[in-house]
Amino acid sequence: MRKTDIAPISGYYCSRALLLLAAAMVILMVATSGSAGTTPAPKGTAEFPVERPPFTPGIFPCSACHEGMEPDIKKRELSEHTQVKLHHAPEILTWCLSCHDAKNRDKLHLVNGDLIDFTESYRLCGQCHGTNYRDWKAGVHGKRVGYFAGGQRTYFLCVNCHNPHDPKFKPLKPEPPPFKPLDKRNGP
Amino acid sequence: MAHKHMTRREFLRLVTVAGVTGAAFSVASCDKRTREEFLQKHFLEMTDEQKKSVIARLEDQYLKKYRKKFTISTQGAQPNTLWGYGLDLSRCIGCRRCVYACVKENNLSRHNPQTQWIRVLRLKKGNLINLEEAEHYYDPPEVPEEGHFYMPVQCQHCENPPCVKVCPVHATWKEPDGLVVVDYNWCIGCRYCMAACPYRGRTFNWAEPKLPQDELNTSVHYLGNRPRYRNVVDKCTFCIQRVRSGRYPACVEACPTGTRKFGNLLDPESEIRYLIEHKRVFRMKEDLNTEPKFYYFFAE
Questions:
Q1: Would you state the pLDDT for residue B2?
Q2: CB spacing of B139 vs A186 below 8 angstroms
């Protein structure tokens, strides 16, 4: 007798609970689709105002000389650009056309074939040096000068500090040490 | 006639009157400039009008002394700013470019005495905690040297600055944007602050600063890089004259390896916040509870 009393009541609650669950799921789906629509696009295309790439005077545009030349893509000892000594990554991996584009000499190319300007060379470097690229974008690797607020801020390109053909930092002559306390130049 | 003895009360009255008259006479008899200088109020108590007149007087004095027109700013702290500094110990090569950029930007005395606000310490690798063995007179032909690393030290702009606590005349204080500054017109040269600073972040002008005429920086701040006087204490201000108008400090711009970082600790998008959140950071002598706003970090 009791069982028959309870059964319709529990069935009633079960159906109500299912209904509520379904309603909640619908609301959740609507909410998530709405929030997906308002999520801001990633800042992958942000512009970085950069310093001028440190070209050797008179060398750019490269096409001025390379224009009518037939590209020779074979890895070899160059007869021109003899001052460039490539000490960047294992020799087997790199050579001029790993970064410079054979068809358009005024551009660099990424691994996926996209052509980029020399002022965007950080994208090229970032392909291998991902952690440094991430820090550079945040301003923690490399250097920024100018105004961090209320004016123009300039980012140093990777190549403003590292020679792209020989990127290891070279030792510097330090500025003179301070005078010692008893130095005549420190006296009264 | 009986000899008249002066009572204690009469004597004190006489001394007080003589003293007050003497002081009033000496103030009244000196020239207007000296009088104004003597009666100048504390910087934090000045009205805008009073600041203007002090600035006009100082600009005139500097013009006569250095034969160059100085522009002295009294720009106050920007709202919602708390300046913080980051220094990457894995990148510093000890070249001292920052030291000399600072000297030039902040009109520091070149010799007799030489004052420098940044000291670059050379330490043996693996010896970071033993500062007693640090050397700052190193002079090799080239840096970095094998087996060493370098740790530049300057004012750490503590949130809890011991130098401010000990000043007997409140000539040094912490600004709302966190910069610890000195009023060179109020400092009495007692050097208590220098004794209290655990970072050796302050320097003393034992004589008038010797500044080359052609290297004077004439764009100055009252609390920052204006030429100092004899017998006053000065210190790094994070280039107050630059950062309050949104520019990086001179040492940040001079560093050839990008070791130095600067930004607003209250801005979650700033470089300083990024490095605190993502890198291994420490502050010097944290155990002293000075709460420096100068963060050393290792990016690599």
A1: 58
A2: no
Those residues with Cβ within 8 angstroms of residue A87's Cβ, 6 or more apart along the chain or in another chain? A165, A166, A167, A168
Q: For position A43, what pLDDT does the model report?
A: 33
Do B88 and B297 meet the contact criterion of CB atoms below 8 Å apart? yes
CA distance B183 to B234: 9
Measured distance CA(B82)–CA(A146) in Å, rounded: 19
B248 and A145 in contact by Cβ < 8 A? yes
Domain B83-298 fold: Alpha-Beta Plaits (3.30.70)
Q: Is A187 on the interface with B (CB under 8 A)?
A: yes
CA-wise closest residue to B177 among B161, B159, B194, B165: B159
Provide ipTM, 2 decimals: 0.86
Chain B partners within 8 Å of A149 (Cβ)? 246
Question: What is d(CA A64, CA A60) in angstroms, rounded to the nearest whole number?
Answer: 8
Tokens coding B57: 């007087």
Cα dist from A103 to A26, A69, A93, B93, B142, whole Å: 55, 10, 20, 40, 42
Rounded Cα–Cα distance for residues B286 and B264 (Å): 21
Q: Which of the four pLDDT bands, split at 50, 70 and 90, describes residue A6? A: very low
Contact A185 B97 (CB under 8 A): no
Closest Cβ–Cβ partner in B99, B119, B271 for A138 = B271
Q: How far is the CA of B144 from the CAs of A66, A172, B91, B138, in angstroms?
A: 40, 8, 10, 11
Take residue B66 and report the two structure tokens written for it: 């250095």
* Closest chain B residue by Cα to residue A160: B256
- Between helices B32-39 and B8-29, what is the axis angle to 10°? 120
Rounded to a whole number of angstroms, the CA Rg of chain A reads 31
Q: What is the mean pLDDT of chain B?
A: 93
* Facing A187 at nearest CB: one of B112, B139, B274: B112
Q: Cite the residue boundaries of each domain of chain B with CATH code 3.30.70.20.
A: 83-298
pLDDT in tens, B92-130: 999 999 999 999 999 999 999 999 999 999 999 988 778
In this complex, the residue of A141, A148, A161 whose CB is nearest that of residue B248 is: A148
Q: Which residue of A has its CA nearest to B208?
A: A188
Q: Tell me which H or E stretch contains B273.
A: helix B271-278
Does the structure show a pLDDT above 80 at B74? yes
- Alpha carbons B57 and B54: distance in angstroms, whole number: 5
Q: Which amino acid, residue B235?
A: K
Question: With an 8 Å Cβ cutoff, are B247 and A146 in contact?
Answer: yes
What is the residue whose two structure tokens read 């005078």? A179
Which of A144, A172, A180 is facing B256, going by the closest CB pair? A172
Q: What is the pLDDT of residues B48-72, one digit of tens each?
A: 999 999 999 999 999 999 999 999 9
